[in-house]
């Protein structure tokens, strides 16, 4: 089975929503602040032992969508996104799997 990949990535800085469309026709809409709150990096997770888990979708969609915004987005290899946030944080690598699990 072919791996599901993003076919489009759009950051709407007015609505504060990151939209990813996937190769299977689905789409995910991710509020900026929530996405920042579920940053999967070692610092945000509080240590290596806490990494690799599924995204906390409650945090993602309940976090008040204000404050931090996206400065830029880079793809990492063919498996992930690196998001540079307006607070200077940029070490979070959001894999396709992570983002797929978090979609709503
Ligand atoms: Zn982080």
Please, could you describe this protein's structure?
This protein is α+β, with helices and mostly antiparallel strands. It has one domain (6-102): 2-Layer Sandwich (NE0471 N-terminal domain-like), CATH 3.30.2020.30. 22% of the residues lie in helices and 33% in strands. It is built from four helices and six strands. β4 and β5 form a beta hairpin. The two termini are 23 Å apart. The mean pLDDT is 95. It binds zinc ion.
Q: What kind of oligomer do you see?
A: single chain
Low-confidence stretches: none
The appropriate CATH architecture is 2-Layer Sandwich
* Helix run count: 4
Order of helices and strands: EEEHHHEEEH
Q: Major sheet, described briefly?
A: 3 strands, antiparallel
Give a summary of the structure in a few sentences.
The protein is about 20% helix and about 35% strand. It has helices at about 30-35, 40-45, 55-60, 95-100; strands at about 5-10, 15-20, 25-30, 70-75, 80-85, 95. The longest helix has 7 residues, at about 95-100.
Keywords:
three-stranded antiparallel sheet, globular, NE0471 N-terminal domain-like, alpha+beta
How would you summarize the topology of this molecule?
Layout lengths: L5 E7 L4 E6 L4 E5 H6 L4 H4 L11 H6 L7 E7 L3 E6 L7 E3 H7 L2
Antiparallel strand pairs: 1-2, 2-3, 4-5, 5-6
